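Q: I'm writing a short methods note and want an example of a predicted protein-small molecule complex. Could you take the sequence and the SMILES for S-adenosylmethionine and return the bound structure as tokens? Please keep the output block clean; save any remarks for afterwards.
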Amino acid sequence: MTSGTDEAMANEFDTVAGWTAQVAMDLGPDYHVPAACRGSGQPAALDWLLKGLQPTPGDLLIDAGAGVGGPAAYASQWAGLRPILVEPEPDACRASRELFGFPVMQADATRLPLPDGAAGLAWCLGVLCTTTGADAQLAILRELARVVRPGGRIGLLVFLATVTQLDDPPEGNHFPSPAALTAMVGQAGLAVLDRALAADLPRPPADWQERTQAVESELERRHQNHPAWRVAEEQSARIGHLLQQGQLQAQVLLLQRP
Ligand SMILES: C[S@@+](CC[C@H](N)C(=O)[O-])C[C@H]1O[C@@H](n2cnc3c(N)ncnc32)[C@H](O)[C@@H]1O
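A: Understood, no commentary inside the block.
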């Protein structure tokens, strides 16, 4: 049986993911990457991570919890990386295949279907807090540590709770505290090389904002009366409110497997 929480996550990451890809395809290629980054990817956060990952064009990048594939496409366009996507939701997998044509595995990042040391680089953006809790978060960090080679680098984008009791948190999310995240990273055998608050990074350029706004408006026009749209909007409004209140903060982290 599907719980209300599972349903909220499926609405947001599967049904809406499929709609987003359709809108992006209808609006045209200039809209594909910004539309597919609606999950959590902001250009400045992706630039910060790509700089820290120190990629060489042609390197493999494992994207765990890849969503609709926008950040992977950004990494391919701006750093020449070859992304391998892992994502559990079927419509999101289909959406990223249709938009970008990257290899996508439908799987859970707590058990990545990849051999040890499969790549030099990995990232996991906006995913940890959408899992079932601390056990899954630690399992994902351990899997990321396993699939990169020794010396390999890992990027994270995480939403962290700065207070113990959040006002009206979004359903199904489990936000670690900054201290809990640091402890889990250590337990996974990874070292923190650098971290930054997403709020301190530059805002997206005007043309990016115009494109994401156009996608948002078109999604709303087409689907505003659908329950899945209303649930997804409600979830993102709650996260926006918590960020504004300072009860949540988005951090980017650069990790290394020793
Ligand atoms: C906020 S979205 C971020 C998507 C993408 N990383 C981005 O930044 O655009 C969170 C994604 O994590 C995926 N996810 C949730 N639990 C997961 C798990 N256990 N393993 C892998 N992905 C997971 C969801 O299906 C969703 O696509």
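A: Remarks, as requested: The mean pLDDT is 94. The CA atoms of residues 11 and 34 lie 20 Å apart.
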